[in-house]
Amino acid sequence: MKTYEIINPSDAYTFQAPDLQVAALTIFLLSTSFGAKCVSHPGDDEDVPIFLFGGADSWWEATFPDISMEKAVEMRARDVADALSSTLYGLVEARDDFQALTGPISDKQALQDMRIKWNDERRTSLNDISKAAYATAEAVRQKFSI
Fold first, then answer.
1. pTM higher than 0.85, yes or no?
2. Which of 36, 71, 80, 124 shows the smallest number of beta carbons within 10 Å?
3. Which residues 6+ apart lie within 8 Å of 56 measured at CB?
4. Per-residue pLDDT tens for 54-100?
5. Is the Cβ–Cβ distance between 46 and 54 less than 8 Å?
6. Which residues of 33-69 are buried (b: 16+ CB within 10 A; e: fewer)?
């Protein structure tokens, strides 16, 4: 699993995805005005650019010429929902701290509740990226019955 930092003008957040395709879908479902920097594998060309003024479709087609975004979301819905659900406040070090605290917890709902509390207690911006990510993850799960 690769760790990505969400590039945005407010608080720092990270998420985890298995590859660039899922990372791109994750970002595009949140906002094309965000980007993602792969911080666990620097130099692997795994970053998702910011598209403030368009261009996301062209980048997708050049990067993944064999599959449309819509088909990719459908085929990778579980991975995308899991990536969105992994969104966590802070940089990689904060993610490491959170994982050290929650490592032995296997109850998915308890872990998600702890993520929400972690994010809410630390967030300084009115822009609640984690809340949007969790709501989008739930929408993906419902749409694709996963």
1. yes
2. 124
3. 28, 32
4. 999 999 999 999 999 999 999 999 999 999 999 999 988 888 888 89
5. no
6. ebbbbbbeeeeeebbbbbbeeeebeebbeeebeeeeb
